């Protein structure tokens, strides 16, 4: 199982409340068979209308892995494609004022921590990243806190979600693989699984 305790890297600010899942990944990309290639389409329509000024197009934010957003991020539909597209672009954690519940759950199921901070803190981090895009960010789930350059900010995460990330229990496939012996032993006792005997 993959334990997630700390994420370090570069940040990318995305300003605005109520950014919904259709903006994150337009509905026409939901027909894909796999999630491969979704990273290139993330914020496709927003980016097209921004004429290269969208943060996901700006060269100073390429390679960023921590997204900093405002309120109610990920609202709208329950599409898993939204966090998948962000992850395929390279996002590994999100700091925001608030998240839509289903979006947050989809992120947790993928091992993407979503932590919250008050509006003033989020704005301060976003402004720092706008002025100095190379500012290092560190999300430490053990505290939990975010370090932005020389400054440190308290953040909030649901304790159950934090424990799932901290212990690797967010990774359901990893749990199955780590318990193969127990699953095999249980399966051997189930008569309806013995159809080949």
Descriptive terms for the model:
globular, 7 strands, alpha/beta, 197 residues
> For the CA atoms, what is the radius of gyration?
19 Å
Number of helices: 9
Q: Widest sheet: strand order?
A: 4-3-2-1-5-6-7
Q: Quick one: how many beta strands? A: 7
Mean pLDDT across all amino acids: 94
Q: Could you give the distance between the termini?
A: 33 Å
- Detail the poorly predicted runs: none
Tell me about the largest β-sheet: 7 strands, mixed
**Envelope shape:** globular
Proportion of beta-strand residues: 15-25%
What class would the helix/strand composition place it in?
alpha/beta
Order of helices and strands: EHHHEHEHEHEEEHHH
The helix fraction, in percent, is: 25-40%
What's the topology here?
Layout: E1 6-13, H1 21-24, H2 38-41, H3 44-49, E2 66-68, H4 81-89, E3 93-96, H5 101-110, E4 114-116, H6 119-131, E5 136-140, E6 145-148, E7 151-154, H7 159-167, H8 172-178, H9 180-188
Word description of this protein:
By secondary structure, this protein is an alpha/beta fold. It has helices at residues 21-24, 38-41, 44-49, 81-89, 101-110, 119-131, 159-167, 172-178, 180-188; strands at 6-13, 66-68, 93-96, 114-116, 136-140, 145-148, 151-154. The mean pLDDT is 94.
Short synopsis of the structure:
The protein has about 200 residues and is of the alpha/beta class.
């Amino acid at each position: 199982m993959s334990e997630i305790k700390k994420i370090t890297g570069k940040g990318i600010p995305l300003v605005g409340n109520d950014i919904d899942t259709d903006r994150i990944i337009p509905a026409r990309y939901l027909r894909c068979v796999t999630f491969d290639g979704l990273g290139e389409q993330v914020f496709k329509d927003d980016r097209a209308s921004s004429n290269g000024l969208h943060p996901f197009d700006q060269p100073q934010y390429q390679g960023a892995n921590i997204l900093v957003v405002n309120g109610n991020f990920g609202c709208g539909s329950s599409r898993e494609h939204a966090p998948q597209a962000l992850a395929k672009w390279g996002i590994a954690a999100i700091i925001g004022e608030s998240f839509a519940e289903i979006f947050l759950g989809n992120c947790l199921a993928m091992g993407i921590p979503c932590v919250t901070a008050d509006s003033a803190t989020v704005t301060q981090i976003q402004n720092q990243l706008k002025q100095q895009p190379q500012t290092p960010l560190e999300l430490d789930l053990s505290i939990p806190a975010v370090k932005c350059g020389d400054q440190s900010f308290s953040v909030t995460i649901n304790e159950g979600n934090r424990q799932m990330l901290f212990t690797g229990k967010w990774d359901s496939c990893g749990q199955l693989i780590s318990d193969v012996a127990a699953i095999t032993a249980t399966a051997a006792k189930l008569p309806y699984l013995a159809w080949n005997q």
